[in-house]
Design the sequence.
């Protein structure tokens, strides 16, 4: 007996229990929801702790200055299902713009639904569309699930070792404790 297919007639023809996920750029109005998502991410990371005021300030800076990066969000209607934070820098080795994938998180209720795959593929497509030559991401060494996920998209483990120098309180960008507002003197 041949199978019968009903013609698709737009989103209304889709069963109500199926989510319609859409990717868009984050806006200022998304910041509270993005902070909630980052709370889930930082609660599971070894090096970071959730701090809503710090996360809000960082998100605001990226949204206000899109030349620094983009935050892509995955939505179902007005609900944020996930986010991915893409920051720009320049690689002298590659002679052009590259992306650091700083944060990627899917709401725990939507993991395993394909949301992460949709987000990551959107980030890869976006990076290519703006001429980026590479995406770099850091994962916790113990997060083998995330590492397998990224490998499925072509990411490889680098022989480079990430190192950090943290300056403590927010806004203190100099290792000597100065705010950076003082005049710098360079040797000629």
Sequence:
């Amino acid at each position: 007996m041949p199978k019968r297919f009903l013609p698709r007639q737009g989103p209304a023809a889709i069963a109500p229990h199926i989510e319609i996920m859409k990717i868009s750029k984050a806006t200022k109005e998304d910041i509270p929801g993005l902070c909630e998502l980052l709370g889930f991410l930082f609660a599971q990371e070894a090096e970071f702790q959730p701090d809503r005021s710090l996360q809000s300030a960082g998100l605001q800076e990226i949204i206000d200055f899109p030349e620094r990066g983009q935050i892509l969000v995955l939505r179902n209607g007005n609900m944020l299902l996930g986010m991915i934070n893409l920051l720009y820098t320049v690689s002298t080795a590659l002679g052009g713009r590259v992306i650091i994938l700083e944060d990627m998180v899917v709401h725990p209720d939507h993991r395993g639904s394909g949301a992460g795959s949709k987000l990551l593929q959107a980030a890869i497509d976006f990076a290519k569309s703006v001429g980026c030559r590479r995406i770099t991401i850091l994962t916790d060494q113990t997060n083998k699930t995330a590492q397998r996920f990224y490998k499925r998209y072509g990411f490889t483990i680098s022989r480079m070792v990430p190192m950090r120098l943290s300056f403590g309180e927010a806004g203190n960008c100099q290792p000597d404790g100065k705010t950076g507002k003082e005049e710098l003197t360079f040797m000629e």
Notes: The two ends are 85 Å apart (CA to CA). The chain is about 25% helix and 20% strand. The chain has one domain: 18-152. The longest strand covers residues 79-91.
